[in-house]
Amino acid sequence: MVQNKAFIYKSLPNGWPVPDKNLTIxxxxxxxxxxxPKGGFTTKNYYVAYDPSQRGRMRDPAIQSYSPPMNxxxxxxxxxxxxxxLRSDSSSIKEGQIVMMQSSxxxxxxxxxxxxxxxxxxxxxxxxxxxxxxxxxxxMTGMTAYGSLHEIGKPKKGDVILISAAAGAVGQMVxxxxxxxxxxxxxxxxDDRKLDFILKDLGFTSGFNYKKENMADAVxxxxxxxxxxxxxxxxxxxxxxxxxxxxxxGRIVACGSISTYNNAKETTPYGVKNYGAMVRKRLxxxxxxxxxxxxxxxxxxxxxxxTKWIQDGSFKSIDHVTEGIDNAIEGFLxxxxxxxxxxxxxxxxxxx
Length: 352
Ligand SMILES: NC(=O)c1ccc[n+]([C@@H]2O[C@H](COP(=O)([O-])OP(=O)(O)OC[C@H]3O[C@@H](n4cnc5c(N)ncnc54)[C@H](OP(=O)(O)O)[C@@H]3O)[C@@H](O)[C@H]2O)c1
Description:
about 350 residues, Quinone Oxidoreductase, Chain A, domain 1, Rossmann fold, 7-stranded mixed beta sheet, globular, binds NADP nicotinamide-adenine-dinucleotide phosphate
């Protein structure tokens, strides 16, 4: 047996997860010499994606949602884990290949049964494309941004777009596409380092730090004639401000509501006050999930364009990498608290 350190979902949080109580790091062991499961394979893992939706799966199993709750005492499920195949009993997955597994444990080594094979992607290394891009721009996050912006936001050159959590994984990609397509791009972020990043590195037209400036004042100042598209990662007060500032026939892309994810059971969520704008301004407000067919249909175009743009240097894949599984809890909470910039990733081992 070798050590197999894992990031464990230990007990149900009420509000913010508490390190060492709700989340722990434990050795769950791995037998290097054991045969892979029948029709399955084993991996040594390099990178694990963090994603705010993981918080939604740390819930009372009685609460229904679009993805199942995580199991107590087991490794935290990640949307995507990249590793190298150690041993395989599958005809389509070979030893030594780099693979990306879906809905997989945050652990140093994994044992995957036959059912995992059909959702596992073999990654063919491409020049100029870092492996971590497959967790971000070329992964689920990038699919979210690319598909929903085009399908629901329907951007046109000259449109004014407001993006919340603009320096995060989804926000940085929505913003870069919007800049590229000739929109007037405004970002809302939670600190000045992020503001600098979206303005200087990503080429946003303007932005504001919502912790320093009143949101309603900032949006009026930066979009005096109103907003055509609000790309909403956060919900809460900024959504209300956006509703009040939408132009006629504007579009709201409801991607997430991270401002509510760590509310305790007793907390009453922010109540939207400007709903009346929906009818008055004939707005379209649509939610989506990344695996919906109308979002996934953009995959081929996303893969081709984003790969090309990363390779020619015109698109940035910015990651916040937490080094080592011992620091997994810190990296996860850092994403939820807004301490991380770009796509949050846990690095377990150096790719060999
Ligand atoms: N619909 C889908 O299929 C789908 C798929 C993927 C992601 N999502 C959603 O998209 C959103 C962004 O995800 P991501 O992966 O790109 O995460 P992320 O932006 O990399 O990280 C989360 C960011 O949210 C901001 N934030 C956290 N708490 C906040 C609060 N109370 N108020 C305002 N902002 C807060 C922080 O940025 P600041 O420091 O700037 O506040 C933080 O960095 C999330 O809501 C997520 O659930 C939806």
